[in-house]
Amino acid sequence: MGRQSSQGIARIPRLLAATLAAAALLAGLAGCAGPTNGTQTASSASGDHGSSAQGQDSPQQGPVSTLRDADGNGRLASSLSAYIDEVLADPYVSDYERPFLEQAKKEGWVSTTIYEKVWSDYKTCMVDHGFPEPKIERFPNGMMDIMQHAVGTDEQEERWRDAYADCYLRFSHVQGLYGQQQGNPNLYANVDEAVVDCMRREGVVPPSYTVKDFNDGQTLLQTEGWTDAKDKLGYDFGDARVRGCKAAQAGRQAAPTTPWSTSGRSWRGY
Questions:
Q1: 220-228: long-range contacts (C-beta < 8 A, 24 or more apart)?
Q2: Smallest Cα–Cα separation from 145: which of 168, 163, 177, 129?
Q3: Alpha-carbon distance 19 to 33, whole Å?
Q4: Digit-coded pLDDT (tens) for 103-125
């Protein structure tokens, strides 16, 4: 590991992005608002927010995003191109990221140039908000994530969260699309299945490793704690390839109350 936070330093979980997104932009994702007991079902992972809310606009919540919904085969879409179309049709795509998504549609994928551009703009945006340039970590699969920031006063933290929401959420669809492209080429709608498939392809777990094995490991982390459970997971939680697989799905966890940290600090794996 060696990368865990010390006193005064907080890892930045992608959880915050999901929480802020649910609160500020993705109010239509009603299924993301409730508490979680630390487990995730196939229904919640695939974006099943309840049949009464699917595909309907709510005057209180706004339009419903369907980006997490599974098709009849348990996939987000039939192809990456089809998924790009779905992303472009999402009512919460920002004006900033739309040109990048339209370029991705023309090219058939999110290029490294686009991905590096939005993250470069993120760093500039945070600096423009008065914060030091954030440190970005890049995983073997190309995914990027924020490494850490120093914890300040409540007022400073609120300022940081506001800046983060402004600077990150404007390209969250590009981040999510790139994550599926790099970490979930089979476009599994179930987040656990996507992470496990990625880990198998990266060679960090054997082909026989299953979603049940993964979830059993998360349960051990919850019940026994990190120190006692880390050697029973069947994989190295701190392996950069594992963290890259989880980072690729970080924006799609079922509920924003589920802990997430690509750094391995949180015991819930995505």
A1: 221/267, 221/268, 221/269, 222/38, 222/267, 222/268, 225/267, 226/267
A2: 168
A3: 9
A4: 999 999 999 999 999 999 999 99
Spans of all domains in the chain: 9-252
pLDDT at 142 over 60: yes
Summarised one tens digit per residue, pLDDT across range 209-243 is 999 999 999 999 999 998 899 999 999 989 999 99
